[in-house]
Write a structure and sequence with these properties.
This protein is about 40% helix and about 20% strand. It has about 230 residues and is α/β, with parallel strands linked by helices. It is globular and about 55 Å long.
Length: about 230
């Protein structure tokens, strides 16, 4: 069963989300506060595929919940719900480990499309068993265990980060346009913009580069996109 945790303090919005996700075939657990979300997550031993987190809530806010959930699970898909359109809210959520964001108000079709896309990636991460390793310099990407190591040391990646790394390592020294990365990783019908690619690349650099501000491997192709530079 596809299981989703919905965390939203506004009753009307929470009910709207729950009704539409249930219609789309999801099993939904909904709570009004960040404190309730962490409790429910622990009680269920993290048995959720996707979490939708409102940013602005009394008590523990959505950013804090996002960070704590990501610390406990690399595989859960996290979508931030925000009433604000400011870029900083989006960047903050993504840097803390969210996979996507939806700006209120949103339509039922956008909601289900975003959740469906995240759920497909979670399923790929937990259920796909591709064979073989991809080796690039000090990096080894294991497609069976869905892990990445650098000099033998495991690097913790979310499912989105893993897919981005997989895309780059399968295309070494090839400049990939932002829109192409967006389509390959987030899906052709993704509603958002290409800036989500930039934020995830920034987050990846913090994990894989010795000097993230001067990347050696995940390099920018100015005005175009990014390239994995293989030694």
């Amino acid at each position: 069963m596809k299981k989703v945790l919905v965390v939203e303090d506004e009753d009307a919005i929470r009910e709207f989300v729950v009704i539409n996700l249930k219609r789309a075939g999801y099993q939904v657990v909904d709570v009004p506060t960040g404190e309730d979300a962490l409790r429910v997550f622990d009680e269920a031993a993290g048995d959720f595929d996707v979490a939708l987190l409102d940013v602005m809530m009394p008590g523990i806010d959505g950013f804090t919940v996002c960070k704590k959930l990501r610390e406990q699970s690399d595989s859960i898909g996290i979508i931030m719900l925000s009433a604000k359109s400011q870029e900083m809210d989006k960047v903050t959520g993504l840097m803390l480990g969210a996979d996507d964001y939806i700006t209120k108000p949103f339509s039922p079709s956008e909601l289900t499309a975003r959740v469906d896309a995240i759920h497909r990636r979670v399923t790929m991460m937990t259920g796909r068993a591709a064979s073989g390793d991809i080796v690039s310099g000090p990096f080894v990407l294991n497609q069976r265990s869905r892990t990445l190591t650098k000099n033998g040391k495991l690097i913790d990646l979310t499912q989105v980060e893993f897919q981005i790394m997989e895309l780059f390592l399968k295309n070494p020294n090839v400049a990939l346009e932002r829109s192409e990365i967006l389509s390959k990783v987030w899906g052709e019908n993704y509603f958002g913009d290409v800036k989500i690619v930039d934020v995830n690349v920034r987050r990846l650099r913090m994990k894989i580069e010795d000097e993230p501000s001067s990347p050696k491997y995940l390099c920018t192709v100015w005005g175009y996109g990014y390239k994995w530079t293989e030694e």
